[in-house]
Amino acid sequence: MLYEVPWLGDSPMQTLLEDVRYGLRNLRKNPGFTAVALLTLALGIGANTAVFSIVNGILLNSLPFHDPDKLVVLFESKPHFKEGSISYPNFLDWRRENHAFTTISAYRPDTFSLTGTGEPEQVRAEMLSSDFFSVLGVKLLLGRTFTPEEDQLGAGHVALVSSGFWKRKLGSSPDVLGRRIVLDGEGYTIIGVLPANFHLTLPNFRDDRDVFVPIGQWAYPYFRDRSRALGMKAVGRLKPGISLAQARADMDSVAQNLAAAFPQADAGEGAALEPMKQEMVGTIEPFLLMLLAAVCFVLLIACVNVANLLLARSTSRTREFAIRAALGASRARVIRQLLTESILLAMGGAALGLLLATWGCRAALAVVPVALPRAEEVGLDLRVLIFTAVISILAGVFFGLAPALKTSRTNLQETLREGGRSVSGTRHRVQSVFVVIEMAMALVLLIGAGLMIRSLMRLWNVDPGFDPHNVLTFSVALPPSANGVSADAARSIYRQLHDNLAAVPGVRALSLSGGSIPFRSDDEELFWIEGQTRPANDKDMNWTLRYTIESGYLEAMKIPLKRGRFLTPHDNEHSPLVAVIDESFADRYFPHQDPIGKHVNMKGIDQPLEIVGVVGHVKQWGLDADDKESLHAQLYAPFMQGADKEMQQTTGGVDVLLRFDGPQQAATDSIRRAVAAMNSQQFLFDVETFDETISKALAAQRFSIILLGVFAGLALLLASVGIYGVISYVVGERTHEIGIRLALGADRMHILRLILGRGGILAMAGVGLGLVSALALTRLMASLLYGVRSTDPLTFVGVAILLTLVALAACYIPARRASKVDPMVALRYE
Q1: Closest to 775 in 3D by CA, of 788, 762, 793
Q2: Closest among 541, 440, 501, 460 to 767, alpha carbons compared
Q3: According to the model, what pLDDT value does residue 417 have?
Q4: Using an 8 Å Cβ cutoff, are 710 and 294 in contact?
């Protein structure tokens, strides 16, 4: 008898409480069923919660800045780059002449050698305009930001430091303000500390910055050249009432005015504007949306599985509900009771799912953390909890409705007469339909995962134009004493560094580098072919990527030499200027000609460069992105032939690429000792193999494949359990029939084929439906694939065969059990 709640009377709340208590008691009476259903739902709901928490933190949450929708990132659009760097003079004119922004602030990455505070080390820095943090609306933890007077050439050196740097290097000292630190041999006064929760990831700006200095103090001679853009970007805050479209129109007008005033440098140049949030998360958004769709399939499969369990269980409850109907319970009352039990199951699954989601989020972030921007904002917040509650209720209604409708539709007289032992053929058909549906959804997920895996395999097999194995890249921070030396003295330091590194055991080839590095940095230069009239302005010049390297670069990178010769040690500051070009350069600018002996003129260099060789093309922009970029031409210039100003400016540090034998750690340790032996204040930083560089470049794809593979495997498991459960249920219900067949002479192989045939029909129906669905749905992920069509027949056929075999294997166990039925026991089954 149901417990009465006197103060509630006969209210709907009392009825609901009665249904809840009865449902809980019923679930406790069937612990096996309850455990399986809860675990199935926990997997589905937990996976959805984990992925949604990632999507929520990265895509849905607002940026942690004041009025973030007004923040815009600005670039200089060029003929070959939509989002190019901005020259400093152009930035100053943009800031002064625009009418759309309250202010615009510039930023540019840099590094400094930190000395005098423990062991010398390289710190990552960001050069900033004085109003950078006010644009974002960030308040410092301690101190103040830069003043406009400090953001000028010749002003006293001041710096801001990150909260992490303050704790790590300065012991969280409360009297840090006014303290001096030595960067590249120069003293900087600390005037402020950033808050610990400051996170920003933009082009040329990463969360790992330790030090921030005024950009206007940079004394590099080319920085104030209007025609040179040295890695500087900008952020701006839109004025109230100004839309992004209006801001773009305003900046187009500003760019046109500058092009008219400075045609030599700015003709054809424009301003590109993008919302800050889009710049931060744009590349990962398609992958996350694909994962969210995939994990919804997993939840649907879990719901279908639980619905099948409820249908199977409803057979034993048919008599119960027939008696309740006989005592006056309406069909609506029965349905409500059954849906209450379903929602209780869903809520229990949600509670377990939240635990799985918490673990799953941490695991996902640990697998490929570099793939996720704003990863620090991923977590289980209120929006995620609401999402989990909503999908739990919807799931409970979804998987509980069909069994509830089926169970409530009972023939009262027949059920009471037969004692509840009759079996509905309709119920079997509904279960079969459910199995077909979950098999189809599992197939779609498996095909999606298969396509992504094949795509990644194609990417791994792409020839980058060089051999990345056993190639180490790093930078060497030269000692403060190297600052300000003459160009000849700088070259002498570099030659000594080269010789010391070449003497390290295991180093097979090496090159110092001051220009582009594949996958990591780029250096674009303007040129025109000798014999042609110099273009009137930069807009009409040609662009090339410049690699400033030494003669050992070809062997270190194993780039094939196609024609002529490569650079030699004799190509130095005392010899005529030479260059080597790649095949793309030769094909575009010297079609059907031999470029050897031809000359090119580089902007900013007085003498022409003679082309002495042609090498293979290197995929500078990445394995999957190089073909999409318009700038392919590549030019290699001798490191020692760099202009004197350039040689003096690189004394803060130089990049090195070398090929080594043996274990990486042993080679790295030997190189560190050789570098330190030259000067105790000289050290390595940014040490990385090219295999690691390529792996990072593919981090987003690997992240998606790992999660999609997990979801596909989970879907395959649930689908297999589903078809196993249905076939087991059918075998149990047909035990009497099987016994009669065996008693009348049917052999056991016939019974085995009979049961497997039923499972095979369900599997083939699910595979057929899944193939049709996958043909339509996988087209949506075409942009995420490389070298594989979204309708790749090999993937479709292979996955279809795999799913069919797994389904038949799941059916084999109950089929084998059916073939071993004892006829005498089966005939007494009723």
Answers
A1: 793
A2: 440
A3: 52
A4: no
First to last CA, the chain: 32
Q: How many CA atoms lie within 13 A of 157 on its CB side?
A: 14
Q: What is the pTM of this model?
A: 0.79
Residue 1: strand, helix, or coil: coil
Q: Higher model confidence: residue 646 or residue 62?
A: 62
Q: What is the DSSP string of 284-322?
A: THHHHHHHHHHHHHHHHHHHHHHHHHHHHHHHHHHHHHH
331 Rama class: left (phi>0) / alpha (psi -120 to 50) / beta: alpha
Tokens describing residue 367: 């697998």
**397-420: per-residue pLDDT in tens?**
877 776 666 665 555 555 445 444
Nearest CA among 82, 105, 111, 195 for reference residue 474: 111
Q: Is 388 exposed, middle or buried (0-12, 13-18, 19+ CB in 10 A)?
A: buried
For residue 361, what are its two tokens?
A: 């989020």
- If we measure between CA atoms, which residue out of 83, 66, 87 comes closest to residue 75? 83
d(CA 224, CA 784): 40
Asked whether the predicted pLDDT for residue 32 surpasses 50, the reply is yes
Amino acid at 280: M
For the residues 139-168, what does the mean pLDDT come to?
93
Where does the pLDDT of residue 825 fall: very low under 50, low under 70, confident under 90, or very high at 90 and above? low
Contact 678, 433 (CB under 8 A): no
Name the residue with higher pLDDT: 417 or 530. Answer: 530
Using CA atoms, how far apart are residues 600 and 595, in angstroms rounded to an integer? 10
pLDDT at 47 exceeding the cut of 60: yes
Q: Nearest CA to 488 among 362, 278, 644, 337?
A: 644
Angle between helix 285-326 and helix 425-460 axes, rounded to 10 deg: 170
What are the residues whose beta carbons fall under 8 Å from the beta carbon of 616, sequence distance 6 or more? 465, 559, 560, 562, 582, 583
Q: Provide the token pair at 51.
A: 């992925």
Flag whether pLDDT at 548 surpasses 70: yes
Asked if residue 421 has pLDDT above 50, the reply is: no
Main-chain phi, psi angles of 710, to 5 degrees: -65, -45
Q: What is the pLDDT of residues 608-635, one digit of tens each?
A: 999 999 999 999 988 888 787 888 899 9
336-370 pLDDT tens trace: 777 888 888 888 888 888 888 888 787 777 765 55
**Distance between CA 513 and CA 503 in Å, rounded?**
18
Integer-rounded Cα Rg, in Å, for the chain is 35
Write out the two tokens for 506.
């295991």
Residue, of 7 and 561, whose pLDDT is higher: 561
CA distance 430 to 305: 12
Query: Residue 352 contacts by C-beta under 8 Å, 6 or more apart in sequence?
Result: 38, 39, 41, 42, 45, 46
Cα 247 from Cα 244, distance rounded (Å) = 5
Judged by DSSP in three states, 408 sits in helix
Neighbour tally for 123: CB within 10 Å: 22
Q: Which tokens go with 300?
A: 């649907």
Are the CB atoms for 303 and 360 separated by under 8 Å? no
Q: Is 242 helix (H, G, I), strand (E, B) or coil?
A: coil
DSSP annotation of 150 reads T
- Can you tell me the distance from the alpha carbon of 718 to that of 705, in angstroms, rounded to the nearest whole number? 19
With 0-12 CB in 10 A as exposed, 13-18 as middle and 19+ as buried, what is 513? buried
Collect all residues with Cβ–Cβ distance below 8 Å to 737 and sequence separation of at least 6.
none
